[in-house]
Amino acid sequence: MGPVKKRKRGPKNRETKVHLIFDEKARKEYLTGFRKRKNERRQKAKEKMERHLKEEKRRIKQEARDFRKAHVQNFTPVPEVDHLVEQKTYNLPQHTVIVTEIDNSEIMNNRGFLGVNRDESDAEVNTDNKETVHGKGKVKARLKITKHGKMQLKKAGKPKHKNMTHLQDKHKLKKERDKRRKAEKIIRGKHQRKRTNPG
């Protein structure tokens, strides 16, 4: 064997060297910070979900507004076609009956109701039941809407939404939270009973 040649080493690269230092404080922060970091992640996720929920609500409201505008525009009466609608008049011995076609716009203007058939004498009696707005001198008729009628109006004014995942997520989280709180309340109640009744 021949003589072993020593390799020449280049200068030490001190810029990219890594110095490992054991820091007890940093170690403790890392080990005890799991809960803190988890809560931060939860908070971020909650804020993100709330932001998406607001955007979703805003989008749904805008769609409902657009739907209502289009719906009202579709049912506005056209003056050029009014003369084509036939009105039949029947003269009976006690009263006169006029049969005409009803537009959806008339129903929409009256909040989904056509109105009640009234005799002229009934109309005079019902003027006492009207409510006057104090200071304005206007007469405002009372209109009672049943619960079912309100639901029908809401359904008519809202478009169908298929992807409302953020709302569903929010309701699911609320349900879980309420369930957890109820369980905690029951447990707390049991512990309090044990303390008051030892034995």
Automatic annotation (TrEMBL):
Protein name in the entry: Nucleolar protein 12
Residue ranges of the region described as Disordered: 150-199
Protein family: Belongs to the RRP17 family.
Any one of the GO CC terms: nucleolus
Keyword terms: Coiled coil, Nucleus
Protein localization: Nucleus, Nucleolus
Name of a matching Pfam family: Nop25
The keyword Coiled coil is annotated on this UniProt entry: yes
Species this chain originates from: Lingula anatina (Brachiopod)
GO molecular-function terms, A-Z: rRNA binding
Presence of keyword Nucleus: yes
Origin organism lineage: Eukaryota, Metazoa, Spiralia, Lophotrochozoa, Brachiopoda
Superkingdom of the source species: Eukaryota
Coiled-coil regions listed: 35-70
